[in-house]
Amino acid sequence: MNLMNKTQKLTKSKTRVSINLPDNEISLLKSRQSSFSEHEKERVASSSNWGNGGVHHHHQNHQHVRGERTLVEVLREVDADVLGLQDVKAEEENGMKPLSDLAAALGMNYVFAESWAPEYGNAVLSKWPIKRWNAHKIFDHTDIRNVLKATIDVPEAGELNFYCTHLDHLDENWRMKQINAIIQTNDEPHILAGGLNSLDESDYSQERWTDIVKYYEEMGKPTPKVEVMKHLKSKDYTDSKDYAGECESVVMIAKGQSVQGTCKYGTRVDYILSSSNSPYKFVPGSYLVLSSKGTSDHHIVKVDVMIKVNNNTQENMTKKPQQHRQKIVKITHSTPSKGIWKTHNGEVY
């Protein structure tokens, strides 16, 4: 494929149990709280207790359930060239299914690194060849999380270093150790995608932030923190959110915040970032949060990129200006899915 005449779409999604509320739980709870009985309050709190690391995906059997769209159908519509998935399941004793089935259905190569639980972890899928890959425990040997690093061979554009990770879901101090380890051990240009589980305070009004903090306290969840995102900004990472386009109407934006949330709480915890030295730049107006449409309790984050050709020129990887949600890339020849890996002592084999 001639990359200079096509659009490369870097997409990050979560594969977990579907929640997909009509509005975020924080706003719903606030608006209805005055009319709740004590029993109702307890029921709402119970239904909201989903940890980032403990909710497993479903619908990867690719069958319809009461009219819901399957994960394959949703990702085909997204039509990405590179996907980063977290909390994805791959059973080694069952041919790495369901991940291997998903990759085959999409015509993509993949690599997988077991992370927080047996047979669950991070995966990178690519329509282009994956030249190299490795996975490392993020902080030290006691850390159950990892970062999966894939070097993708993009035709006529060179190598793309794509990192997929999922940081701790409870402790910001531990997340800071994890993100520092990723930064300090990697000086190559890269795209970083994943569930960072930290908030960016600039996304929210003071009233909205107060509501978020209060909700977390009432639910017994750790107080939301922003140190990880502040640190990444201080390291000059570019946030794809700053290149936002038209919002998808079915993904609600909570009152008092400037961006669409990516999880059921209406907050943004899933990111696509570019390192300061990366030749790949985000295309203005291309960032979108798309509905997971019954396949996940986290929405899909998507952005297009362009490559910096020289010091003065940037080439958009499109033949013509991109239209909102228009499918531009059509792959007709894909290599068989390959590259099935698990972590062992922090390395991939």
TrEMBL record:
User: What Pfam families does the record point to?
Assistant: Exo_endo_phos (PF03372)
Disordered: region residues:
32-66
Question: GO CC terms on record?
Answer: endoplasmic reticulum; membrane
- Compositional bias (Basic residues) at which positions? 55-64
- In which domain of life is the source organism classified? Eukaryota
UniProt domain Endonuclease/exonuclease/phosphatase: residue ranges: 69-298
For this protein, the record's SUPFAM superfamilies field holds: DNase I-like (SSF56219)
Which processes are annotated in GO (biological process)?
GPI anchor biosynthetic process
User: Molecular function terms in GO for this entry?
Assistant: catalytic activity
PANTHER family tied to this protein: CALCOFLUOR WHITE HYPERSENSITIVE PROTEIN PRECURSOR, ENDONUCLEASE_EXONUCLEASE_PHOSPHATASE FAMILY PROTEIN, EXPRESSED
This chain belongs to the protein called Endonuclease/exonuclease/phosphatase domain-containing protein
Q: What is the lineage of its organism?
A: Eukaryota, Viridiplantae, Streptophyta, Embryophyta, Tracheophyta
